[in-house]
Specification:
Oligomer: single chain
Distance between the termini: 35 Å
CATH architecture of one domain: 3-Layer(aba) Sandwich
Radius of gyration: 21 Å
Structural class: alpha/beta
CATH topology of one domain: Rossmann fold
Shape: globular
Helix content: 40-55%
Bound molecules: pyridoxal-5'-phosphate
Number of strands: 13
Strand order of the largest sheet: 3-4-12-9-10-11
Protein backbone atom coordinates (compact mmCIF):
# COMPACT_ATOMS: atom_id res chain seq x y z
CA UNK A 1 0.00 0.00 0.00
CA UNK A 2 1.29 3.44 -0.91
CA UNK A 3 0.31 6.71 0.72
CA UNK A 4 0.03 10.10 -0.96
CA UNK A 5 -0.18 13.65 0.40
CA UNK A 6 -3.40 15.66 0.33
CA UNK A 7 -1.43 18.59 -1.08
CA UNK A 8 -0.09 16.62 -4.00
CA UNK A 9 3.60 17.51 -3.86
CA UNK A 10 5.34 15.36 -1.23
CA UNK A 11 6.67 11.97 -2.37
CA UNK A 12 4.44 8.88 -1.94
CA UNK A 13 5.53 6.70 1.01
CA UNK A 14 5.06 3.13 2.22
CA UNK A 15 3.40 2.20 5.52
CA UNK A 16 6.56 2.27 7.66
CA UNK A 17 7.54 5.75 6.61
CA UNK A 18 4.01 7.06 6.99
CA UNK A 19 4.01 5.71 10.52
CA UNK A 20 7.16 7.65 11.39
CA UNK A 21 6.16 10.86 9.59
CA UNK A 22 3.91 13.60 10.89
CA UNK A 23 2.92 16.12 8.27
CA UNK A 24 4.01 15.49 4.70
CA UNK A 25 6.83 17.79 3.52
CA UNK A 26 4.31 19.85 1.50
CA UNK A 27 2.23 20.49 4.63
CA UNK A 28 -0.41 17.91 3.68
CA UNK A 29 -1.62 14.74 5.38
CA UNK A 30 -1.01 11.23 4.12
CA UNK A 31 -3.90 9.10 2.83
CA UNK A 32 -3.89 5.68 1.13
CA UNK A 33 -3.48 5.88 -2.64
CA UNK A 34 -6.47 3.53 -2.94
CA UNK A 35 -8.76 1.89 -0.39
CA UNK A 36 -9.35 -1.84 -0.01
CA UNK A 37 -12.94 -2.83 -0.75
CA UNK A 38 -14.72 -5.74 0.94
CA UNK A 39 -17.78 -7.49 -0.55
CA UNK A 40 -20.89 -8.04 1.57
CA UNK A 41 -20.15 -11.74 1.43
CA UNK A 42 -16.69 -11.23 2.84
CA UNK A 43 -17.89 -8.92 5.61
CA UNK A 44 -20.66 -11.40 6.45
CA UNK A 45 -18.04 -14.12 6.87
CA UNK A 46 -16.49 -12.08 9.70
CA UNK A 47 -19.46 -12.56 12.02
CA UNK A 48 -18.40 -14.03 15.32
CA UNK A 49 -14.75 -13.04 15.05
CA UNK A 50 -13.03 -11.61 18.12
CA UNK A 51 -12.18 -7.91 18.03
CA UNK A 52 -8.52 -8.56 17.27
CA UNK A 53 -9.32 -11.05 14.49
CA UNK A 54 -11.64 -8.54 12.92
CA UNK A 55 -9.00 -5.83 13.35
CA UNK A 56 -6.56 -7.97 11.40
CA UNK A 57 -8.96 -8.42 8.47
CA UNK A 58 -9.79 -4.72 8.29
CA UNK A 59 -6.27 -3.36 8.74
CA UNK A 60 -4.06 -5.88 7.03
CA UNK A 61 -4.46 -4.37 3.54
CA UNK A 62 -3.16 -1.04 4.87
CA UNK A 63 -0.12 -2.54 6.56
CA UNK A 64 0.51 -4.92 3.68
CA UNK A 65 3.96 -6.49 3.65
CA UNK A 66 5.47 -3.99 6.11
CA UNK A 67 4.70 -6.47 8.91
CA UNK A 68 4.41 -10.27 8.41
CA UNK A 69 0.84 -11.46 9.01
CA UNK A 70 1.68 -13.59 12.07
CA UNK A 71 3.53 -10.76 13.78
CA UNK A 72 0.68 -8.37 13.07
CA UNK A 73 -1.90 -10.81 14.48
CA UNK A 74 0.16 -11.19 17.64
CA UNK A 75 0.50 -7.45 18.00
CA UNK A 76 -3.26 -6.98 17.69
CA UNK A 77 -3.95 -9.72 20.24
CA UNK A 78 -1.70 -7.94 22.72
CA UNK A 79 -3.11 -4.52 21.93
CA UNK A 80 -6.73 -5.38 22.54
CA UNK A 81 -6.12 -7.71 25.48
CA UNK A 82 -5.35 -4.69 27.69
CA UNK A 83 -8.96 -3.51 27.37
CA UNK A 84 -11.15 -4.18 30.38
CA UNK A 85 -14.08 -5.73 28.50
CA UNK A 86 -13.99 -9.01 26.58
CA UNK A 87 -15.91 -7.49 23.67
CA UNK A 88 -13.38 -4.57 23.65
CA UNK A 89 -16.02 -2.16 22.23
CA UNK A 90 -19.30 -3.31 23.83
CA UNK A 91 -22.69 -1.89 22.83
CA UNK A 92 -25.16 -0.57 25.39
CA UNK A 93 -28.77 -0.05 24.40
CA UNK A 94 -30.36 3.33 25.17
CA UNK A 95 -33.75 2.98 23.49
CA UNK A 96 -35.50 1.06 20.73
CA UNK A 97 -32.90 0.68 17.99
CA UNK A 98 -30.56 3.16 19.66
CA UNK A 99 -27.14 2.30 21.12
CA UNK A 100 -23.92 3.63 22.60
CA UNK A 101 -20.69 1.90 21.62
CA UNK A 102 -18.45 2.06 24.69
CA UNK A 103 -15.01 2.96 23.39
CA UNK A 104 -13.66 3.78 26.84
CA UNK A 105 -12.65 0.38 28.16
CA UNK A 106 -8.95 0.97 27.44
CA UNK A 107 -6.27 1.96 29.99
CA UNK A 108 -6.97 5.72 29.90
CA UNK A 109 -10.77 5.53 29.55
CA UNK A 110 -11.13 7.29 26.19
CA UNK A 111 -11.39 6.00 22.62
CA UNK A 112 -7.90 7.25 21.83
CA UNK A 113 -6.55 4.05 23.42
CA UNK A 114 -7.79 2.06 20.40
CA UNK A 115 -5.29 3.78 18.18
CA UNK A 116 -2.50 4.71 20.58
CA UNK A 117 -2.15 1.28 22.15
CA UNK A 118 -1.57 -0.02 18.64
CA UNK A 119 0.59 2.90 17.50
CA UNK A 120 3.10 2.36 20.33
CA UNK A 121 3.51 -1.28 19.34
CA UNK A 122 3.74 -0.51 15.62
CA UNK A 123 6.41 2.11 16.25
CA UNK A 124 8.52 -0.15 18.41
CA UNK A 125 8.27 -3.00 15.89
CA UNK A 126 9.37 -0.88 12.95
CA UNK A 127 12.11 0.90 14.94
CA UNK A 128 13.51 -2.42 16.18
CA UNK A 129 13.71 -3.65 12.60
CA UNK A 130 15.40 -0.47 11.43
CA UNK A 131 17.61 -0.08 14.51
CA UNK A 132 16.31 3.46 14.97
CA UNK A 133 15.08 5.56 17.85
CA UNK A 134 12.48 8.33 17.96
CA UNK A 135 11.47 11.03 20.39
CA UNK A 136 7.75 11.59 20.54
CA UNK A 137 6.96 15.17 21.34
CA UNK A 138 3.36 16.19 21.82
CA UNK A 139 1.19 18.85 23.43
CA UNK A 140 -2.01 17.93 25.17
CA UNK A 141 -4.92 19.62 26.83
CA UNK A 142 -6.51 16.32 27.75
CA UNK A 143 -6.95 12.77 26.50
CA UNK A 144 -4.25 12.42 23.86
CA UNK A 145 -1.34 12.84 26.26
CA UNK A 146 -2.33 10.11 28.65
CA UNK A 147 -3.30 7.68 25.87
CA UNK A 148 0.03 8.31 24.12
CA UNK A 149 1.99 7.80 27.34
CA UNK A 150 0.16 4.54 28.08
CA UNK A 151 0.68 3.44 24.49
CA UNK A 152 4.44 4.06 24.55
CA UNK A 153 5.39 3.14 28.11
CA UNK A 154 6.83 -0.22 27.12
CA UNK A 155 8.49 0.92 23.91
CA UNK A 156 12.23 0.33 23.88
CA UNK A 157 12.98 2.61 20.99
CA UNK A 158 10.81 5.55 21.93
CA UNK A 159 11.16 8.36 24.45
CA UNK A 160 8.02 10.39 24.96
CA UNK A 161 7.82 14.02 26.09
CA UNK A 162 4.35 15.39 26.66
CA UNK A 163 3.82 19.10 27.30
CA UNK A 164 0.75 20.25 29.18
CA UNK A 165 -0.17 23.74 30.38
CA UNK A 166 0.78 24.01 34.06
CA UNK A 167 -2.27 24.02 36.36
CA UNK A 168 -4.65 24.11 33.38
CA UNK A 169 -5.63 20.46 32.88
CA UNK A 170 -8.09 18.60 35.09
CA UNK A 171 -6.66 16.63 38.01
CA UNK A 172 -7.82 13.27 36.62
CA UNK A 173 -6.26 14.06 33.27
CA UNK A 174 -2.98 15.27 34.81
CA UNK A 175 -2.69 12.28 37.11
CA UNK A 176 -3.36 9.89 34.23
CA UNK A 177 -0.20 11.25 32.62
CA UNK A 178 2.06 11.93 35.55
CA UNK A 179 1.57 8.72 37.54
CA UNK A 180 2.68 6.38 34.74
CA UNK A 181 6.09 4.96 35.60
CA UNK A 182 8.80 4.44 32.99
CA UNK A 183 12.30 5.75 32.21
CA UNK A 184 11.16 6.83 28.77
CA UNK A 185 8.22 8.91 29.99
CA UNK A 186 8.66 12.62 30.56
CA UNK A 187 5.88 15.01 31.51
CA UNK A 188 6.58 18.69 31.17
CA UNK A 189 4.24 21.26 32.70
CA UNK A 190 4.79 24.53 30.84
CA UNK A 191 4.06 27.83 32.57
CA UNK A 192 1.80 28.92 29.73
CA UNK A 193 -1.37 27.83 27.94
CA UNK A 194 -2.12 24.99 25.53
CA UNK A 195 -1.34 27.13 22.48
CA UNK A 196 2.13 27.87 23.90
CA UNK A 197 2.72 24.12 24.26
CA UNK A 198 1.50 23.41 20.76
CA UNK A 199 3.61 26.16 19.25
CA UNK A 200 6.75 24.73 20.89
CA UNK A 201 5.97 21.29 19.46
CA UNK A 202 5.35 22.69 16.00
CA UNK A 203 8.54 24.75 15.99
CA UNK A 204 10.55 21.80 17.25
CA UNK A 205 9.30 19.62 14.39
CA UNK A 206 10.27 22.36 11.97
CA UNK A 207 13.82 22.55 13.31
CA UNK A 208 15.13 19.43 15.02
CA UNK A 209 18.69 20.70 15.36
CA UNK A 210 18.45 20.59 19.18
CA UNK A 211 18.56 16.77 19.00
CA UNK A 212 22.03 16.92 17.48
CA UNK A 213 21.13 14.53 14.64
CA UNK A 214 21.16 11.54 17.01
CA UNK A 215 17.42 10.85 16.96
CA UNK A 216 14.29 12.29 15.29
CA UNK A 217 10.85 13.48 16.31
CA UNK A 218 7.69 11.46 15.64
CA UNK A 219 4.05 12.57 15.92
CA UNK A 220 1.21 10.91 17.78
CA UNK A 221 -1.56 13.40 17.10
CA UNK A 222 -4.43 12.40 14.86
CA UNK A 223 -2.69 13.49 11.70
CA UNK A 224 -0.82 10.17 12.01
CA UNK A 225 -2.47 7.82 9.52
CA UNK A 226 -2.15 4.75 11.77
CA UNK A 227 -4.54 6.34 14.25
CA UNK A 228 -7.28 6.72 11.64
CA UNK A 229 -6.67 3.18 10.42
CA UNK A 230 -7.20 1.66 13.88
CA UNK A 231 -10.48 3.52 14.29
CA UNK A 232 -12.07 2.03 11.16
CA UNK A 233 -12.31 -1.37 12.85
CA UNK A 234 -14.98 -0.60 15.44
CA UNK A 235 -17.47 0.58 12.84
CA UNK A 236 -17.32 -2.94 11.37
CA UNK A 237 -17.55 -4.48 14.84
CA UNK A 238 -20.72 -2.58 15.80
CA UNK A 239 -22.39 -3.27 12.48
CA UNK A 240 -21.68 -7.01 12.63
CA UNK A 241 -23.04 -7.15 16.17
CA UNK A 242 -26.37 -5.63 15.10
CA UNK A 243 -27.08 -7.59 11.92
CA UNK A 244 -24.77 -5.93 9.41
CA UNK A 245 -23.83 -6.04 6.66
CA UNK A 246 -27.39 -7.15 5.83
CA UNK A 247 -28.78 -4.04 7.53
CA UNK A 248 -27.36 -0.62 7.19
CA UNK A 249 -26.34 1.43 10.25
CA UNK A 250 -26.31 5.06 11.35
CA UNK A 251 -23.48 6.47 13.49
CA UNK A 252 -23.25 9.68 15.49
CA UNK A 253 -19.71 10.77 16.31
CA UNK A 254 -18.57 13.41 18.84
CA UNK A 255 -16.10 15.30 16.72
CA UNK A 256 -13.13 17.61 17.24
CA UNK A 257 -10.33 17.06 14.79
CA UNK A 258 -12.49 14.95 12.45
CA UNK A 259 -10.35 11.83 12.97
CA UNK A 260 -12.90 9.45 14.42
CA UNK A 261 -15.69 10.33 12.00
CA UNK A 262 -13.33 10.25 9.04
CA UNK A 263 -12.65 6.62 9.98
CA UNK A 264 -16.42 5.97 9.71
CA UNK A 265 -16.49 7.57 6.27
CA UNK A 266 -13.66 5.24 5.23
CA UNK A 267 -15.47 2.17 6.63
CA UNK A 268 -18.38 3.07 4.37
CA UNK A 269 -16.14 3.48 1.34
CA UNK A 270 -14.60 0.10 2.11
CA UNK A 271 -17.97 -1.56 1.68
CA UNK A 272 -19.72 -1.38 5.05
CA UNK A 273 -23.39 -0.38 4.63
CA UNK A 274 -23.71 2.92 6.54
CA UNK A 275 -26.70 5.07 5.68
CA UNK A 276 -26.03 8.02 7.98
CA UNK A 277 -22.99 9.66 9.59
CA UNK A 278 -23.68 12.49 12.04
CA UNK A 279 -20.97 15.03 12.87
CA UNK A 280 -21.66 16.05 16.49
CA UNK A 281 -19.80 19.15 17.68
CA UNK A 282 -19.94 21.36 20.75
CA UNK A 283 -19.99 25.17 20.44
CA UNK A 284 -16.67 24.99 18.63
CA UNK A 285 -18.74 24.25 15.57
CA UNK A 286 -16.65 25.09 12.50
CA UNK A 287 -17.68 21.77 10.92
CA UNK A 288 -21.38 22.24 11.60
CA UNK A 289 -21.26 25.77 10.20
CA UNK A 290 -19.53 24.47 7.08
CA UNK A 291 -22.06 21.68 6.60
CA UNK A 292 -24.98 24.07 7.12
CA UNK A 293 -23.83 27.02 5.05
CA UNK A 294 -20.72 26.17 3.00
CA UNK A 295 -18.54 28.61 4.88
CA UNK A 296 -15.34 27.36 6.50
CA UNK A 297 -14.33 30.01 8.98
CA UNK A 298 -12.33 30.01 12.24
CA UNK A 299 -14.02 31.53 15.26
CA UNK A 300 -12.33 32.12 18.58
CA UNK A 301 -11.96 29.15 20.91
CA UNK A 302 -14.79 28.51 23.36
CA UNK A 303 -14.13 26.59 26.57
CA UNK A 304 -16.90 24.02 27.02
CA UNK A 305 -17.80 21.08 29.24
CA UNK A 306 -16.41 18.80 26.51
CA UNK A 307 -12.78 20.01 26.39
CA UNK A 308 -11.53 17.22 24.12
CA UNK A 309 -13.62 18.75 21.33
CA UNK A 310 -12.52 22.34 21.94
CA UNK A 311 -10.80 23.16 18.64
CA UNK A 312 -10.78 26.06 16.20
CA UNK A 313 -9.92 24.09 13.04
CA UNK A 314 -10.26 20.37 12.36
CA UNK A 315 -6.97 19.09 11.03
CA UNK A 316 -8.28 15.83 9.54
CA UNK A 317 -11.00 17.64 7.61
CA UNK A 318 -8.29 18.18 5.01
CA UNK A 319 -8.48 14.46 4.23
CA UNK A 320 -12.17 14.78 3.35
CA UNK A 321 -11.59 17.96 1.35
CA UNK A 322 -9.07 16.00 -0.72
CA UNK A 323 -11.76 13.49 -1.71
CA UNK A 324 -14.37 16.20 -2.24
CA UNK A 325 -11.98 17.80 -4.74
CA UNK A 326 -11.49 14.64 -6.75
CA UNK A 327 -8.11 14.09 -5.03
CA UNK A 328 -6.67 17.23 -6.59
CA UNK A 329 -3.83 18.16 -4.20
CA UNK A 330 -3.23 21.54 -5.81
CA UNK A 331 -6.87 22.55 -5.23
CA UNK A 332 -6.67 21.50 -1.56
CA UNK A 333 -3.42 23.40 -1.12
CA UNK A 334 -4.90 26.61 -2.52
CA UNK A 335 -8.10 26.24 -0.51
CA UNK A 336 -6.32 25.71 2.81
CA UNK A 337 -3.83 28.48 2.20
CA UNK A 338 -6.82 30.78 1.70
CA UNK A 339 -8.59 29.32 4.73
CA UNK A 340 -5.63 30.36 6.91
CA UNK A 341 -6.35 33.98 5.92
CA UNK A 342 -10.15 34.11 6.16
CA UNK A 343 -13.44 32.35 5.43
CA UNK A 344 -13.61 30.06 2.36
CA UNK A 345 -16.32 28.13 0.49
CA UNK A 346 -16.10 25.26 -1.94
CA UNK A 347 -17.97 24.86 -5.24
CA UNK A 348 -21.64 24.29 -4.66
CA UNK A 349 -21.84 20.79 -6.18
CA UNK A 350 -18.93 19.62 -4.02
CA UNK A 351 -20.59 21.00 -0.90
CA UNK A 352 -23.86 19.29 -1.83
CA UNK A 353 -21.96 16.04 -2.10
CA UNK A 354 -20.55 16.58 1.41
CA UNK A 355 -24.11 17.11 2.68
CA UNK A 356 -25.10 13.75 1.22
CA UNK A 357 -22.29 12.09 3.13
CA UNK A 358 -22.81 13.77 6.52
CA UNK A 359 -25.43 15.34 8.73
CA UNK A 360 -24.32 17.65 11.52
CA UNK A 361 -25.39 19.32 14.72
CA UNK A 362 -23.83 21.64 17.32
CA UNK A 363 -24.76 21.02 20.95
CA UNK A 364 -24.15 23.63 23.65
CA UNK A 365 -23.32 23.02 27.32
CA UNK A 366 -26.93 23.29 28.45
CA UNK A 367 -28.16 20.67 25.97
CA UNK A 368 -25.17 18.51 26.94
CA UNK A 369 -26.19 18.65 30.60
CA UNK A 370 -29.86 18.06 29.74
CA UNK A 371 -28.90 14.94 27.83
CA UNK A 372 -26.72 13.56 30.64
CA UNK A 373 -29.58 14.10 33.06
CA UNK A 374 -32.28 12.67 30.75
CA UNK A 375 -30.40 9.50 29.95
CA UNK A 376 -29.61 9.02 33.60
CA UNK A 377 -33.26 9.45 34.56
CA UNK A 378 -34.46 7.12 31.82
CA UNK A 379 -31.85 4.36 32.02
CA UNK A 380 -29.69 4.93 35.10
CA UNK A 381 -26.82 5.18 32.68
CA UNK A 382 -24.19 7.90 32.94
CA UNK A 383 -22.83 9.58 29.83
CA UNK A 384 -19.67 11.65 29.72
CA UNK A 385 -20.20 15.13 28.17
CA UNK A 386 -18.64 14.19 24.80
CA UNK A 387 -20.81 11.11 24.39
CA UNK A 388 -23.84 13.13 25.50
CA UNK A 389 -23.23 15.50 22.58
CA UNK A 390 -23.21 12.50 20.26
CA UNK A 391 -26.48 11.17 21.67
CA UNK A 392 -28.18 14.55 21.43
CA UNK A 393 -27.04 15.05 17.82
CA UNK A 394 -28.12 11.49 16.95
CA UNK A 395 -31.62 12.21 18.18
CA UNK A 396 -31.82 15.62 16.49
CA UNK A 397 -30.56 14.37 13.12
CA UNK A 398 -32.05 10.91 12.90
CA UNK A 399 -33.57 10.14 9.50
CA UNK A 400 -34.95 6.62 9.81
CA UNK A 401 -35.96 4.98 13.07
CA UNK A 402 -35.76 1.50 11.50
CA UNK A 403 -31.99 1.92 11.07
CA UNK A 404 -29.96 1.23 14.22
CA UNK A 405 -28.42 4.48 15.49
CA UNK A 406 -25.07 4.00 17.24
CA UNK A 407 -23.39 6.87 19.11
CA UNK A 408 -19.67 6.49 19.70
CA UNK A 409 -19.08 6.65 23.46
CA UNK A 410 -15.74 8.43 23.42
CA UNK A 411 -14.94 8.73 27.14
CA UNK A 412 -15.83 7.29 30.54
CA UNK A 413 -17.93 9.67 32.66
CA UNK A 414 -15.48 9.42 35.58
CA UNK A 415 -13.00 11.39 33.49
CA UNK A 416 -15.37 14.37 33.60
CA UNK A 417 -17.01 14.35 37.03
CA UNK A 418 -17.56 18.14 37.01
CA UNK A 419 -19.76 18.02 33.91
CA UNK A 420 -21.78 15.18 35.40
CA UNK A 421 -22.27 17.19 38.61
CA UNK A 422 -23.23 20.29 36.63
CA UNK A 423 -25.96 18.32 34.86
CA UNK A 424 -27.71 17.88 38.18
CA UNK A 425 -27.13 14.14 38.44
CA UNK A 426 -26.15 13.51 42.05
CA UNK A 427 -24.59 10.10 41.47
CA UNK A 428 -20.80 10.40 41.26
CA UNK A 429 -19.25 8.45 38.37
CA UNK A 430 -16.79 5.94 39.81
CA UNK A 431 -13.36 5.28 38.34
CA UNK A 432 -13.01 1.62 37.33
CA UNK A 433 -11.18 -0.64 39.78
CA UNK A 434 -7.84 -0.54 37.95
CA UNK A 435 -7.74 3.22 38.49
CA UNK A 436 -9.43 3.55 41.86
CA UNK A 437 -6.15 4.56 43.56
CA UNK A 438 -5.30 7.24 40.98
CA UNK A 439 -5.38 9.98 43.61
CA UNK A 440 -2.91 8.17 45.87
CA UNK A 441 -0.33 7.43 43.19
CA UNK A 442 2.96 9.32 43.08
CA UNK A 443 3.21 11.95 40.35
CA UNK A 444 6.28 12.80 38.30
CA UNK A 445 6.56 15.91 36.18
CA UNK A 446 8.86 18.84 35.59
CA UNK A 447 7.66 22.43 35.55
CA UNK A 448 9.43 24.56 32.96
CA UNK A 449 9.15 28.20 31.90
CA UNK A 450 7.27 29.16 28.76
CA UNK A 451 10.49 29.21 26.75
CA UNK A 452 11.26 26.90 23.86
CA UNK A 453 15.03 26.88 24.35
CA UNK A 454 14.61 25.58 27.90
CA UNK A 455 12.18 22.87 26.83
CA UNK A 456 14.40 21.73 23.99
CA UNK A 457 17.42 21.64 26.27
CA UNK A 458 15.47 19.46 28.70
CA UNK A 459 14.54 17.01 25.93
CA UNK A 460 18.05 16.90 24.49
CA UNK A 461 19.39 16.08 27.96
CA UNK A 462 16.83 13.48 29.04
CA UNK A 463 16.16 11.09 26.17
CA UNK A 464 17.61 7.65 26.71
CA UNK A 465 20.89 7.77 24.83
CA UNK A 466 21.50 11.46 25.18
C1 LIG B 1 -10.35 13.27 21.04
C2 LIG B 1 -11.72 13.18 21.55
C3 LIG B 1 -12.84 13.49 20.73
C4 LIG B 1 -12.70 14.03 19.31
O1 LIG B 1 -12.16 13.10 18.42
P1 LIG B 1 -11.62 13.56 16.99
O2 LIG B 1 -11.07 12.33 16.35
O3 LIG B 1 -10.59 14.61 17.24
O4 LIG B 1 -12.79 14.10 16.23
C5 LIG B 1 -14.10 13.30 21.26
N1 LIG B 1 -14.28 12.85 22.52
C6 LIG B 1 -13.24 12.55 23.33
C7 LIG B 1 -13.51 12.07 24.71
C8 LIG B 1 -11.93 12.69 22.87
O5 LIG B 1 -10.90 12.39 23.68
Amino acid sequence: MRYISTRGEAPALGFEDVLLTGLATDGGLYVPESLPHFSLEEIRSWRGLSYSELAFNVMHPFVDDAIPADDFRKMLDETYSVFSHKAVAPLVQLDTNEWVMELFRGPTLAFKDFALQLLGRLLDYVLEKRKQHVVIMGATSGDTGSAAIEGCRRCEHVDIFILHPYERVSEVQRRQMTTVKGDNIHNIAVRGNFDDCQRMVKESFGNQGFLGGKTQLAAVNSINWARIMAQIVYYFQASLALGGPDRSMAFSVPTGNFGDIFAGYLAKKMGLPISQLVIATNRNDILHRFMSGNRYEQHKLEHTLSPSMDIMVSSNFERLLFDLHGRDGQAVKTLLENAAKGPVSIEDYRWRHARKLFDSDAVDDKATCDTIREIHEQNEYLLDPHTAIGVRAARNCRRDSSVPMITLGTAHPAKFPDAVAESGVTVKPQLPAHMADLFEREERYTVLDNNIAGVQEFIAKHWKNA
